[in-house]
TrEMBL record:
Belongs to the AAA ATPase family. Katanin p60 subunit A1 subfamily. GO terms for molecular function: ATP binding; ATP hydrolysis activity; microtubule binding; microtubule severing ATPase activity. The gene is KATNA1. Keywords: ATP-binding, Cell cycle, Cell division, Cytoplasm, Cytoskeleton, Isomerase, Microtubule, Mitosis, Nucleotide-binding. Residues 260-400 form the AAA+ ATPase domain. This is Katanin p60 ATPase-containing subunit A1. One of its GO terms (cellular component) is centrosome. Residues 119-201 are annotated as: Disordered.
Length: 508
């Protein structure tokens, strides 16, 4: 079963329901239930089936709630008694049917005429009613009247004045937590602590659509990659620690000539851990992290790409201290002046160079700034001006023997190992393999026992197997077979090119 697809449908259903998109919510819940039922048809574990049955019950409860709301809205749209207010009130506030209604109060002619005019147009009336429902749900406390002569009159006045009162009403921040609902109906005491408002970039002077595009690329979720998850690369770790962490701990030291580094370029063969280092910076350094790629800064409209570059650095300065990680920077800022270069790409490169130069040279005495962290597999294709702005150019090489041994331990830490498996011997045989190649070898070796166990079995027989029958210790022979099936992805010729460029332009 595709777990990501299942989580997406469940989350999409809940988000759609909270936004009032009940049809989309029902569709998403239905797809999630279909995926779970397909999985249960092939699952033979009784305990897991019981757990998934409880999950199905939870989804069915949410789906039934959405269905009841949909039926209520359909009843409201079909109702012909919306003019007198009592029918609306009985549907919204769930008034007890046994209590008799009092005689209607006198309503002024202006209010009555407006209500009659609105009731003739069903779609417009339903839209007005939806606005009233949103107002009721967004308020902190709402006392629902059970009966009385003023009930229908108050409801009519709310329906009539909904459009007039909405623009003048200040926005109310919704509190979705359970504690927020409990404390909404009690007065605020002096002991309550003020809530810290999250800093928000002011997009009034900018194109809001472009700002929204960039805000989606701010890494809000924790990548959950720590320094301890990366084997070796001591020089790169120390450099990033010096450029990002130490300026926040010792701001008085990093001033003037000692100002922190503002441009770092990591280059090397594919699969050596450049992107993982960037994720570790986002996790460990507690800075605003912008993950930028060529697609983020590309637009089909003339001039928008340059605006995106400028807005990116303006937002980075606003949310400082921040880190801008540009993966595969050679695709954005390759060498200028080639015959195949387009005018639009040249303008983007020029704007990027201007903004990077501003980041490096502006306010050099301030330790809290913006770090441009770039990664590339083709450093020789970078523009000369960009190479100058990336002050530190660090070579990320293939792992040596000690790093390979540490990577083997990290990859196999949650798996069972046989007694005949010597990781030091395996690390020596993996010479010339990148970190990604080594991970693939470990994954292939970990699946060998499963492949041998299910060989020659039918699908029904495989489904009846227990996890203990498949989770066998990894042996030395498994790694021998995995090495025979997997070759290294980096040639010696490529390594010579990286080492030559490092000797000529490297800066550690």
């Amino acid at each position: 079963m595709n777990w990501e697809e299942l989580c997406f449908h469940i989350q999409n259903g809940r988000d759609s329901a909270s936004l009032g998109l009940y049809s989309a919510a029902r569709t998403s819940y239905g797809k999630a239930l279909h995926l779970i039922n397909d999985f249960l048809s092939t699952c033979a574990d009784v305990e897991r089936r019981e757990q998934w049955q409880s999950a199905i019950q939870t989804i069915n409860v949410e789906l039934s709630t959405v269905n009841s709301i949909t039926e209520l809205l359909e009843d409201l749209s079909r109702s012909s008694a919306c003019r007198n207010g009592s029918a609306i009130e009985s549907l919204i506030f769930n008034i007890e049917e046994n209590k008799p209604w009092p005689s209607p109060t006198n309503v002024d002619k202006k209010t009555n005429s407006v209500l009659l005019a609105r009731s003739t147009n069903k779609k417009q009336h339903v839209a007005e009613f939806e606005k009233e429902k949103q107002k009721a749900s967004s308020s902190k406390s709402f006392d629902v009247p059970r009966s009385g002569a003023n009930t229908s009159g108050n409801l009519r006045r709310r329906l009539v004045n909904s459009n007039e009162s909405t623009p003048n009403r200040p926005p109310v921040k919704k509190n979705t937590s359970a504690a927020g609902h409990k404390s909404a109906n009690r007065p605020q005491s002096s002991e309550d602590q003020p809530v810290e408002v999250e800093k928000k970039f002011d997009s009034s002077n900018c194109d809001k659509e472009l700002v929204e595009i960039l805000e989606r690329d701010i890494v809000l979720r924790n990548p959950n990659i720590h320094w301890s998850d990366i084997a070796g690369l001591t020089e790169a770790k120390n450099l990033l620690h010096e450029a990002v962490v130490l300026p926040r701990i010792m701001p008085m030291f990093f001033k003037g000539l000692r100002s922190p580094w503002r441009g770092v370029c990591m280059f090397g063969p594919p699969g050596t851990g450049k992107t993982m280092l960037a994720k570790a910076v986002a996790t460990e350094c507690n800075t605003t992290f912008f993950n930028v790629s060529a697609s983020t800064l590309t637009s089909k409209y003339r001039g928008d790409s340059e605006k995106l570059v400028r807005l990116l650095f303006e937002m980075a300065r606003f949310y400082a201290p921040s880190t801008i990680f540009i993966d595969e920077i050679d695709s954005i800022c390759s060498r200028r002046g080639s015959e195949s270069e387009h005018e639009a790409s040249r303008r983007v490169k020029s704007e990027l160079l201007i903004q990077m130069d501003g980041v490096i040279s502006s306010n050099p005495n301030s330790a809290a700034g913006v770090l441009v962290l770039a990664a590339t597999n083709f450093p020789w294709d970078l523009d000369e001006a960009l190479r100058r702005r990336l002050e530190k150019r660090v070579f990320i090489p293939l792992p040596d023997a000690s790093c390979r041994l540490e990577m083997l331990k990290l990859n196999l830490r949650d798996l069972k190992l046989a007694d005949d498996l010597d990781l030091t011997e395996i690390a020596e045989k993996l010479e010339g393999y990148s970190g990604a190649d080594l991970t693939n070898v470990c994954r292939d070796a970990a699946m060998m026992s499963m492949r041998q166990r299910i060989a020659g079995l039918e699908m029904d027989e495989i489904a009846r197997l227990h996890a203990e029958d498949l989770d066998l210790p990894i042996t030395r022979q498994d790694f021998v077979e995995a090495l025979a099936r997997s070759s290294k992805s980096v040639s010696q010729q490529d390594l010579d090119k990286y080492e030559k460029w490092m000797k000529e332009f490297g800066s550690i």
